[in-house]
Design a protein that fits this description.
This protein is an alpha/beta fold and 168 residues long. It has 4 helices and 7 strands. It has a single domain (3-159), classed as Phosphoglycerate mutase-like (Rossmann fold), CATH 3.40.50.1240. It starts with a strand and ends in a 9-residue tail after the last strand.
């Protein structure tokens, strides 16, 4: 994986949040429909994401209420024996409050995964860290953001190693 790290000094305290919040766009989706499901390639990416998080201590998994995001989150949540918690992508500040509440109930040594959309993930990264990141295109499925919540927040951007052999 290729890593890019950015840091910024903020006067914000995230002590009540998890150590890290991971954010990812849903995996590859079907081309049509109002609420499309994942493709075979997308399901493979979701499974690869679950394998990646097998080495991480997660307190919670959040997803918007769409098939493609729920299916992406489901593989990780099932592997961690966690429920997927819905959030409204139109209410990013409410999600930040939900993350604070989760962390008050969990050990401070855990992280959180948020599965969103190409138009919401960069906004959430900025809201959590104060660091502006580039927008995602409709073809960007491999980006994984890690926002480390400390006195000086940082953002690590990596590309998932998963490569789809079958483009369906």
């Amino acid at each position: 994986m290729r890593f890019i790290t950015f840091s910024v000094l903020l006067g914000l305290s995230f002590a009540s949040l998890a150590n890290s919040v991971y954010l990812v766009r849903h995996a590859e989706k079907q081309a049509s429909g109002a609420d499309p499901a994942l493709t075979l390639c997308g399901q493979g990416r979701a499974d690869a994401l679950a394998a990646y998080f097998s080495e991480h201590n997660l307190a919670a998994v959040f997803s918007t209420d769409y098939q493609r995001t729920k299916q992406t989150a489901a593989a990780v949540a099932a592997s961690k024996q966690l429920a997927v918690t819905d959030y409204d992508p139109r209410q990013p500040a409410t999600l930040v409050q939900q993350l604070k509440l989760v962390q008050q109930l969990k050990n401070n040594n855990q992280s959180v995964l948020v599965v969103g959309h190409s138009n919401t993930v960069p906004e959430l990264v900025t809201l959590l860290s104060g660091i502006q990141v580039s927008p995602l295109t409709e073809q960007d499925y491999a980006m994984l953001y890690q926002v480390k919540l400390a006195a000086i927040p940082s953002v690590t951007i990596s590309r998932q190693a998963y490569r789809c052999q079958n483009k369906q």
